[in-house]
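call fold target=Alanine racemase
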Amino acid sequence: MSRPAIAHIRLDAFRHNYRIAKQSHGGKALAVIKANAYGHGAIQCAQAIENEADGFAVAAIEEALQLREARITAPILLLEGFFEAAELPVIVANDFWIVIHHLWQVEVLLETALAKPLNVWLKLDSGMHRVGLSPADYSEAYSRLSQHVNVAKLVLMTHFANADNLNSDHTQQQVAVFQETITGMGKLSAALCETSLANSAGILSWPQAQGNWSRPGIMLYGASPVSERLTGQALRAVMQLTSRIISIRKIAKGESTGYGSIFTAERDTKVGVVACGYADGYPRSATTGTPIAVDGQMTRLIGRVSMDMLFVDLTDIPNAEIGSQVELWGDQVSANEVAQSAGTIAYELFCNVKRVQFKYSDVG
Ligand SMILES: *Cc1c(COP(=O)(O)O)cnc(C)c1O
C-alpha cells in the first residue's frame, strides 16, 4: 500500500476547456502551459490537445525544449522571449516563437546573425507596467523589426493587469492604449499584423478585447479567474486532489487539536486525519471552515494544516471511517474557494502540488 494522496488529472476535461476557450474567443488560442501546465504536467496536457491546439505558450526555453523532446511539433511561444543572446540559435533550431518585451532584446535580435528569421510577438506595456515596451518605444521597435531579415512575422501583443476585475475600467483603458499605439504606427501595420490581448479573464469577460490570438491559462485547468457565475459552470476541473482518512478520534467540547491548538471544539467533535499536508501543496494558510468533501459529503477543514496531514470535521458524517475518500479540491470542492480561504488564488494552489501521485486519465 502506498500513501493515498493523489492528483487525478483528467485530460479530457483539459481538452474540453481548451475548446471552450477557443469558442468563447472565436480566434486562435495558444494554450498556456508554463510552469509545468500550472502544476498539471505540461507534456501530458500538450499531448491531450496536440491535434487541435493552435500552439502553446511557456515561460522559457527550458520548458519549450521539454515539449519538443516529447515530440510536440506545434508552435511554442516563449512568453518572456530570450534571457541571453546564446539562446537564439536554439530558438531558431526549434522553431520557437518569441515575445520581445524590452529594448535590450530588440537590440540583441537585430545585431545577431540568425540562420532563419523568427516569429516575434512584440509586447506593448499598455498599462500593466510589468514588462513590455512603452507606447513611445513601440512603434520605432516595430518599424526596425518589421524591416529586418531576422523577423519573419510580427504579432502585436499586450497583457491585462485587471481583466479579472469587472468593476475596473483599466482593461478598457489598456485596450484603448493598444489601439492608439497601433493606429499611430500607420494603417499598414494595423492591417498586416495579427494581435493578441486576452488571457483567461479577458476571454471570459471582455469580449471587446480579443484580437486574433487568445492566451488562455487558468481556464484550461477549470478554474475561473472571474466569478464562477460568469462561466456558467461550463469549465470542468482538471485536477482532483484526493486522499484518505488515516485516523479518527473524538474530542470533547473545549478540547483542541493539532499544532498550536488553534482549533477548539465548539461541541463534541469527531476529528478525521487526512494524509495530505502543506508538503503536498495544500496551503498551510487555509483556515478552519475551508470546504472539504468526505465520501461525497461537504464538511470543513479544522485546525492547522501540518506538513503531511490535516484535520477534517467528521461530526456530521457518521459513516466516515478510516479509508474514506477525501476531496481537497476538484469536482465538489472548488479550488477557488480553498484558495480564497487561504488568502491566495487557484493558480498558486495548482502550481504547488507535489509529492502526491499523479494519475492521468483521458476518456474520449
Ligand atoms: C500566464 C500568462 C497568460 C495566461 O494567463 P491566465 O490568467 O492563466 O489565463 C497569458 N498571457 C501571458 C503573457 C501570461 O504570462
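return ok
Residues 32, 34, 79, 159, 199-201, 215-218, 225 surround pyridoxal-5'-phosphate (CB under 6 Å). The two ends are 30 Å apart (CA to CA).
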